[in-house]
Design goal:
heterodimer; A: 520 residues; mainly alpha; MetI-like fold; 22 helices; B: 325 residues; alpha/beta; D-Maltodextrin-Binding Protein, domain 2; twelve-stranded mixed sheet; 14 helices; 41% helix
């Protein structure tokens, strides 16, 4: 590799990244191709499928726009305020994102549902009650899930502006509006397209949330159409074509977003701690406090409902649930390691070829059902897929977490490269030294966050295990489904709480690990 | 962990595997869960068969059939357990199933003479409400009332499909008007049974589509008699769950033995309080007392298996049109 060091030095090594990207593309596209092959060709979607596509695009676009619009003031408030419990708040706000869908939906309904807390208050106050079911309910739920992610991505953007820049604006006597124009807006322009893209992609493959809160078949999404094609009509060709449409949409969205996104280009800083002189007016303090309070209320009240529902059953959960928790942790560990092993080289390679990130994004938009069925078709001729249930689950979970890891790491890598790239070149550092001495120390926060997110997502995600399930090895999300299927709603609520606690603890540990000695 | 044991077994001890025959049974996921009939059935059968009984769980009944179609004649399954009469015609058409030789004194509301499939339990779909709730007693009254219901999507859920067939058999060509009338009663449509029942327990709707046997769970397992199924005077649609033997099985004798076991005393006495359905053959000890408190529909509705597909497709189209407005 030494001979090529000059050619690829600014990217810090592109070869492994391309290999990782090719691997990820194979894991996603291979199964889709396998389903097409097994079907002996594609099947043309019917009018109902096109209607499902329209609804899917509408809800995903709205969900992404609203999540990001709300995340901007929330991230700004978190970026310019320091208060006791700030870090705990940041972690806790991430909770909705990592919960299994059904647990989160029940928490959400305890607040916004027909007999939820909000309607109880409205009713007592003599006001008209609200109806959650409909397109607005779908968007509300998706904002609930994705606002935390959007906030974190944008918050990282704020944190990427060197503290020196804010000192400079303060010494120039700029007010908050001027700081926004000169520092924050350029940063937002770079960060927002990526955040929109990731959330849009997540919402594309929504199914149970959209159906349950959408209130009926008019809330049919593409994923439900795929489910119907496979399970109801056994039309594999149609399922595969629908999955391809889903993938094409996300590819187009990714290309658009990556084109629009530009690096902030703030230049180098001394990684100093941040103090915001411009934001120290009473009005802005009040504004930020209000924003944080509203966001915390919106995200944490349903969480509190989950804690209350599950608290009673948590301590005497059946042994099978604890066993499943152990299995889920093991899968999460493997999935996390794999995510980082794929994300780091891909993010480095993305410095030269930004479109690599689009490959990573396919993971969340790919239909879990088609991926599962495709992997099954691929594995079945060779060995019993049940034997590979856990490794396959870890692999698929890692691929699903990859886009988040990439989105978090890429902007920071671009900054590191633009700030230190020339220096490293002039010192003639080898790619290895550059990675060890310059990149990794500055990427620690992002690595910790990505590791935490990958592990937590894996604990909460049902993944493909339902298709491969062995009665003896259930993960925690599968066990929650089984408890609910056996009428044991109280135990399921307890297991849901256990999952919440586990995911958040793992996320907290890894995320904190990445921020040790850093302020923020 | 069995996973490791299995893996090691495959690589190291092929002879041991050959000595103890394995009977592989594909079933739906809730059958094999720690809270379903699976573990007790496995223990009881292994006591008599000198074999290793291995359950493989996949989603629900319809996913089970999809999985079987995916694998085709190469399937590892010796037995498939958990299809219902809405799926048996499609299952027969695959040509993967072999005739059975089981005869039993079935305790079903209809005569059973299917050559390929053996019934193992059955139940009636019904709306479940809080006991004492002043519920409408047929679909017309329900549509005219302001009672709220939560149902399952027929495209992703077996009970959801059951409701579709229920309305269609009870009302025929008028079914679409019934659905149009019901549209403002339906709070929401869920992916599966669990979500709908969970929403009902959380108070999101007055009633949820479930089974007449659901209240028995609450009485027996939770000592709670606050739930009741609502009798509808059109009659109630039935679900009969069946097991069948694969034609390509490498354990034909064991498979036959298991199918007889399915209608036998032990299996049938496990079913009521683990699968919360009626046994296909009444066990000697009868049913648990709580089952005596359940409503007993006077009229049983069921589309004959060979017409199920056609009725299903037509009914789904009407359902989508009526509710997608």
């Amino acid at each position: 590799m030494a001979a090529r060091a000059v050619a690829i030095n600014r990217a810090g090594g592109g070869g492994p990244g391309l290999i990782a990207a090719a691997f990820v593309a194979a894991v996603i596209l291979g199964p889709v191709a396998a389903v097409l092959w097994r079907a002996g060709g594609g099947g043309w979607p019917g009018p109902a499928d096109w209607a499902a596509l329209r609804f899917t695009l509408t809800q995903a676009t709205l969900s992404a726009l609203i999540s990001v619009a709300l995340a901007i003031p929330a991230a700004r408030a978190l970026a310019r305020r320091r208060f006791a419990g700030r870090r705990i708040l940041i972690t806790a706000l991430g909770a909705p994102f990592i919960l299994p869908v059904i647990v989160a939906v029940l928490g959400l309904l305890a607040v916004f549902g027909r007999s939820g807390a909000l309607n109880t208050v409205l009713y007592a106050a003599g006001l008209p009650t609200m109806q959650i079911y409909g397109l607005h309910g779908v968007v509300l739920a998706h904002v609930f899930f994705n606002l935390p992610l959007a906030t974190r991505i944008i918050l990282q953007g704020w944190q990427s502006i060197p503290a020196e820049r804010f000192r400079l604006t303060a010494s120039l006597g700029m007010n908050a509006g001027q700081v926004m124009r000169h520092l924050e807006w350029p940063m937002l322009r770079a960060v927002i397209p990526g955040a929109l893209m990731v959330i849009f992609a997540i919402c594309l493959s929504s199914f149970a949330v959209a159906l349950t809160l959408g209130g009926g078949p008019s809330a049919t999404t593409v994923e439900l159409a795929i489910y119907q094609a496979f399970r109801f009509d056994f039309d594999l060709g149609r399922a595969a074509v629908l999955a391809c449409i889903q993938l094409s949409i996300v590819t187009v969205a990714a290309i658009l977003a990556l084109r629009v996104a530009q690096s902030g280009g703030f230049g180098a800083g001394l990684d100093r701690s941040l103090r915001r002189f411009d934001a120290e007016t009473p009005a802005l303090r009040l504004l930020d406090a209000g924003v944080l309070l509203l966001v915390a209320l919106f995200l944490l009240t349903p969480m509190a409902a989950i804690v209350m529902r599950g608290g009673a059953a948590l301590l005497d959960l059946p042994g099978a649930v604890w066993r499943a928790a152990g299995i889920s942790l093991a899968v999460a560990g493997a999935s996390m390691a794999l995510t980082l092993a794929l994300a780091l080289p891909m993010a480095l390679a993305a410095l030269k070829r930004p479109m690599i990130e689009a490959v990573g994004l396919l993971g969340i938009a790919a239909s879990p059902l088609v991926i599962g069925v495709g992997l099954f078709v691929l594995i079945n001729p060779w060995t019993n897929p049940m034997l590979l249930a856990l490794p396959v689950t870890a692999l698929v979970n890692a691929v699903m977490a990859l886009p988040f890891a990439l989105r978090v790491m890429t902007p920071q890598l671009i900054d590191i490269n633009s700030e230190f790239g020339n220096l490293c070149d002039s010192l003639g550092m080898s790619p290895r030294d550059r990675l060890r001495l310059v990149v990794l120390p500055r990427l620690r926060r992002q690595l910790g966050f990505a590791a935490g997110l990958a592990a937590a997502l894996s604990i909460g995600d049902l993944g493909v295990i339902a298709l491969f399930a062995d009665p003896e090895i259930a993960t925690l999300p599968l066990q929650i489904l089984r408890l609910m299927g056996a009428y044991r709603m109280a135990d399921a609520a307890g297991a849901g709480l256990l999952l919440l606690v586990l995911s958040l603890s793992v996320f907290w540990l890894l995320d904190q690990g990445g921020r040790a000695d850093s302020d923020a | 962990m069995k996973y490791l044991a299995l893996a090691t077994g495959l690589f190291a001890a092929t002879t041991a595997v050959a000595e103890t025959p394995t009977l592989t049974i594909y079933t739906y996921d809730s059958f094999v869960s720690d809270w379903g009939p699976g573990p007790a059935v496995e223990e009881a059968f292994e006591k008599t068969c000198e074999c290793d009984l291995k359950f493989v769980g996949t989603g629900d009944g319809a996913s089970l059939l999809a999985r079987l179609r995916l694998e085709g004649a190469n399937t590892d399954a010796d037995i498939v357990l958990g299809l219902d009469t809405g799926l048996t015609a499609a299952a027969s058409e695959t040509g993967l199933f072999a005739p059975h030789s089981v005869s039993a004194e079935y305790d079903l509301p209809i005569a059973w003479d299917d050559p390929l499939f053996v019934p193992f339990d059955w139940g009636y779909f019904a709306f479940v409400a809080e006991a004492g709730f002043d519920a409408p007693t047929n679909f017309r009254d329900l549509a005219a009332s302001d009672t709220t219901i939560v149902i399952q999507d027929p495209r992703s859920s077996t009970p959801g499909l059951g409701l579709l067939m229920w309305v269609k058999t009870a009302y025929g060509d008028e079914a679409k008007d019934i659905w149009a009338g019901l549209s403002d009663n339906i709070v929401t449509v869920t992916k599966g049974w669990s979500e709908a029942y969970g929403l009902f327990l959380e108070g999101e709707a007055d009633m949820a589509l479930s089974y007449t046997t659901s209240p028995a769970y609450h009485i027996i397992a939770e000592d709670d008699d606050s739930k009741a199924a609502v009798p509808f005077d059109e009659g109630h649609y039935m679900q009969i769950e069946v097991a069948g033997k694969l034609a390509g099985t490498d354990q034909p004798e064991l498979a036959d033995k298991f199918l007889s076991f399915v209608t036998g005393e032990e299996f049938q006495s496990i079913v009521p309080t683990t699968n919360w359905m009626y046994p296909a053959v009444m066990p000697q000890g009868g049913l648990p007392d709580a089952f005596g408190t359940l409503i007993k529909p006077e009229k049983s509705l069921l589309v004959p298996a060979d017409e199920a597909d056609e009725v299903r497709d037509r009914a789904l189209e009407e359902w989508l049109r009526a509710l997608s407005r």
